[in-house]
Design goal:
Elements: E1 2-7, E2 12-21, E3 24-34, H1 41-59, E4 63-67, H2 75-93, E5 99-102, H3 104-111, H4 119-130, H5 138-154, H6 156-166
Parallel strand pairs: 1-4, 4-5
Antiparallel strand pairs: 1-2, 2-3
Helix pairs in contact: 1-2, 3-5, 4-5
């Protein structure tokens, strides 16, 4: 299975493409879609969607995994994050791909083993588990973690273990 994992945000959307078994995933690519602040939000959303469509055409993923909605204190931030998430979801939906979402807690559990892990812990574990030469940028590390959580969730035995740990 090949998955496009997305950590959506208007200015810095992390993405990763992984494939293979949950116990030994292969990283095909990862990076951050950086949109300059001088570009208005509608232009940023279009850029995110376009970049993701390009990745879908190039790598032909079987599924898409995104981080679910998180609690934020600012309504403005929530709306902005929701818009970036929508751009990502539309890119996948336009290509008929199944889309799965995972809570931040579940993603952290899958990668670190602790649902309250911080970004540095997630990035460290992503690097260690995937055998990367360097620690990825924070948003790309989050996308890699989302992809790893999705691959684990697709394995019935590992998914049950993960579910038990969350309860």
């Amino acid at each position: 299975m090949r998955v496009l994992a997305i950590d959506p945000a208007v200015r810095n959307t992390g993405y990763a493409i992984l494939e293979g078994e949950p116990s030994k995933p292969t990283v095909l690519t990862y990076d951050v879609i950086c949109v300059p602040k001088k570009i208005i939000q509608s232009g940023a959303l279009s850029a995110i969607r376009s970049h993701l469509v390009h990745l879908i055409k190039q790598y032909e993923p079987d599924e898409i995994a995104v981080e679910g909605i998180i609690f934020v204190q600012s309504h403005r931030t929530a709306i902005s994050m929701g818009a970036a998430r929508a751009a990502a979801l539309i890119a996948g939906a336009d290509h008929g791909l199944p889309i799965y979402e995972y809570s931040p807690k579940k993603i952290k559990m899958a990668v670190v083993g602790k649902g309250t892990a911080d970004k540095a812990q997630v990035a460290f574990m992503v690097r260690a588990i995937l055998g990367l030469a360097e620690t990825p940028p924070s948003d790309a590390a989050d996308a890699l973690a989302i992809g790893m959580a999705h691959l684990q969730a697709s394995d019935p035995l590992r998914a049950k273990l993960l579910e038990r740990r969350l309860v």
